[in-house]
Structure formats: structure tokens, C-alpha cells
Amino acid sequence: MTSLAGSVSKNVEGFLDFINKSPTAFHCVDNVKTTLTSAGFKELRDNEQWNIAPLGKYFVIKDDSCVGAFAVGGKYKNGNGFALTAAHTDSPHLRVKPVSKREESNYLQVNVECYGGGIWHTWLDRDLTLAGRVFFRKPNGKISRHFVHVKRPILRIPTIAIHLKRDTNEKLELNKQDHLQAVLALKIEEELNKSTNEKDTTSDGNKKLNDESKKHHSQLLQLLASECNCQADDIINFDLMLADTQPSCVGGLNNEFIYSGRLDNQMSSYCAIQGLVNSLDTLTDETFIRGVLLYDNEETGSESAQGAMSEFTQHTLRRMTRDDYERSISNSFLISADMAHGVHPNYSSLHDRDHRPSLLNGGVVVKTNCCNRYATTAFTATLLKEIARLSNVPLQEFSMRNDMPCGTTVGPILSARLGMSTVDVGAPQLSMHSIREMTSTQALEHYLEFFNGFYNNFKQVYESIEL
User: Fold this and answer.
1) Is the pLDDT of residue 193 over 80?
2) CATH second-level architecture of 95-244?
3) In angstroms, what CA-CA distances link 444 with 318, 360, 371, 455?
4) What number does CATH give the domain 10-91+262-321?
5) Residue 63 region by backbone torsions, left for phi larger than 0, else alpha for psi between -120 and 50, else beta
């Protein structure tokens, strides 16, 4: 019997291999890095001196999720210009919140946040997993980062049975806060598998503050630790996204279709990079600099240090010919300090129950929003947590409910305009914007000690990062 299916080209196979290895923007950029390195491109660090020369091939990465790649023409001279393609690496997804530990009706759940304008009902009844990056402390005290992609289904967001909601086919209504929380396990299984080796110190012998085990299920941390080959107690922070476990593939009667997530916009990213690499044979006679710019956070407005609204593009292009101000920016770190909302005892339902800075004396508040209304990232929060640990200052996590708009600060603006690593923090208070506001004396003490510790400990923490 003759098969009706058409053959699959090497180009399609290459793309499917790429996108199946790229469940997140971090993985996408890491795979782009592999492609570029194999083609002879040299990585430039944005905190080091650059020496650009004709026929040189270079790439620079910003916060693991944005990359610029450049091939300098053999006949290029300053002022000749650039031939550029721009795309983005991110796609709408559900992201694990800073406090993900959630229990309901004997189910262990993972608290998630909506990134971008997703069609969220398509995430229901899918076999989901986790992917992203994890920051952890090594036995020698250094801080390392590892990209994770759990290769089996561990999460699911089940729909409600039609018997319990008879009009579900006529009117599907999803509350993003209440109906998109993912099921991880049964509570009885969590009790059976709970770690019996809990300790209150890290691998470097220091006392743990802001214990991550209080924010995330122990089984989840143990899973991440096994992926990173570290101890669960040494995990400091992470950026984790939910991802479909069904691989991308070809389909249709004659294999004429590609079935895949993240085509918007990893397909453009892949094709642009391949085009640049494939053009290297004609670079000798080129008078321009050829380049590809792949940004993160396009789906949330591009206003981040690694987004298209940032100074990343200007810094990078300017540094092809000069190199001073931008190096200073790359070695900098910005704390955006604005006051934070403590939970009002009469309006506690207006907060995500797992992200309430409920005590005015509970510590400095780290503000996170995956749509970049706050500038905090896993990397900048990692630095902040280490600074707070060394300063003996407690921290609290704040993230808005999914069904309410989020405020913002100067942090995202400065992060975007400067291309500078930024974190948003605040001290908790009540009656914000009233003629008479209130906080606590302990909040003032924590805030003062925090800034003392920042200026005293930043150099030590910054130099401990291994990326």
C-alpha cells in the first residue's frame, strides 16, 4: 500500500528539534547560543571590553532570555550600518508564583500567574510539566544557575465536569485567580514523601533565612534539586513556567502542517538565526554588519531590561565602535524602592492569599509581576535574597491576584531605559495615599538595615555569581 504522507525536510526536522528543546525563552536562547557557537561565533560579555573586527562573529546575551548576534562584513567600515532582523523569544504561558505552595481539598496545587495574553482555556486538561531556570547555592558558597525541563507530566489543570456546571458549553467563564491553579499531587502522597532531612542551615553552614520550603511544596523542591544536582535546601530562587508535554510535530494527511506551541515567535527566531549562520560564506565581501536581535517580554509590552523598549539595542550597537558608559551600566544593579501594600484586616480578600505581606513587621517586601509591572526577575531577586541573608534581614513576597490590575513603580521604566538589572522592593504599610498613612516601627528598622546591608554586601554577592 502506498503511503499518502509526504516526506519531512531537514529544515522541518531541524526546527522541530529546536522548538522541542525550547519550552521557555531561556531554553530558546541557550539553543541559539549552541547554534552560534558551533558556527564560530564568540560570546561577548557586556561587562567586558569589546574588540570588534571585520569578519568577526559575535553574540551577546541579556538575562538568559534575550540575544543579539552579529557577523561583521569583511569590508565593513565604521558608519556603514547594520542589516538587522528582530524577533522575540517569549510566548504566553502560566508562570509559577514566588509563593507557589497551595492546598485545597486534599490536593497539592501550584499557584500560577498569567504571562501575556494567552487563550487560557486551551491550557485545561493538558498534561503539563515545568521548565525554566533555577538559582542555587553550591557547597563552596558560589551561586549557580541551571536550566531545567522536567521531561514528564507532573501538573494538570482539570476542567469542571458538565454535571456540576451545565452551561459550560454555552458559557465558559474562567476566573484567572481561582480556576487556573495547577494540581501537583494528593496531600497524602506529600506526607508520605516529605523530606526527613530538613535542616535550618545551607550547605555553606550559614543559617537559612526566608526558607524556600515554606513557599513551595517539598516534593517540588526535591524534584528541582534532582534536576540541578544540588540539595533542595540550597535552592534560592527560580523562574518556572508550565509547559505542554506533547512535542511539536508534523501532521496532516501529507505531513503539510506543523503542530506546535510557541510558533509565535520561536519560529521567527529560529529562522532568523539560521539565515544569519547560513550567510557566513558571503561575509568576506559584505560592507554591513549583519545581525539578529531576539528580545524577551514582547508578549507583555517589551518594557524590561531584556525587552525591545530597553537600551539593550542601543548599547549593543554603540559598542560595535566604542566602549565606556555601557560597560558601567552592565556592571550595575538598581533597587527600585517604593512602599508596599500590607494586608488590610478589613479587606484581606483583595490579596492573593499566598502573597500577603500580612505583617507590618514581617520584613522588606519583594514585589514580583511576570508582566513586568515590577522589574524583579529571578536573577535580581537572587542577588537581593543573598544580600538580605548576609544582612540578617527577613523578606516577604508580594504578587497581585490574577483578577486584579497591578500597580507599578519607576523600576520597570529605569530597567527598560537603562538596560540595567533591577529589583522592586518596599516596606509594607496601610492607608497608602491617605492624608494619614501607617506602617510599623519594625518595618522602618528592617528597611534601614536592608539598605545598610545592600551597600556593604553588594560587591561580595555580585562577585559570587557564576553564570
Assistant:
1) no
2) Roll (2.30)
3) 42, 10, 29, 17
4) 3.40.630.10
5) left
